[in-house]
Amino acid sequence: MGRKLYVGNLPYSATEQELSDKFAASGTVESAKLITDRDTGQSKGFGFIEMGTDAEAQAAIESLNGTDYDGRPMKVNEAKPQEKRSGGRGGGFGGGNRW
Questions:
Q1: What is the pTM of this model?
Q2: Domain residue ranges of the chain, discontinuous segments joined by +
Q3: Which residue, of 11, 52, 68, 93, has the fewest CB within 10 Å?
Q4: What phi and psi, each to the nearest 5 degrees, are found at residue 13?
Q5: What pLDDT does residue 92 have?
Q6: For the chain, how many helices (H) and strands (E)?
């Protein structure tokens, strides 16, 4: 069990401080990060919480998974390691003119 948790199905109005406060009931919150769209700054509806210990992380999952957050059932589980991405935006060739 890791200490980093994935939190999904969040309302777009959620803030990192509100998330931190919700999870503080289960133990020490070391960090709270909402994921936002890089162009608009709008929340994407999910984020990550890092708890102080594995036991606190497990307690947070058990007490908060499925609970209501502004009319939406929160999804809380252990975060999976981020997969490595290939560099760049991928291939593709421009639509050049054919002679």
A1: 0.80
A2: 4-78
A3: 93
A4: -85, -5
A5: 57
A6: 2, 6
**CA-to-CA distance for 42 and 6, rounded, in angstroms?**
18
- CATH annotation of 4-78: 3.30.70.330
> Tokens representing 65?
């998974």
pLDDT of residue 81: 84
Cα angle for residues 87, 45, 54 (degrees, 5° grid): 80
Is 22 buried (19+), middle (13-18) or exposed (0-12) by CB count in 10 A?
buried
pLDDT tier at 25, thresholds 50, 70, 90:
very high
Taking the C-alpha atoms of residue 27 and residue 53, their distance in angstroms, rounded to an integer, is: 8
Read off the tokens for 55. 């036991």
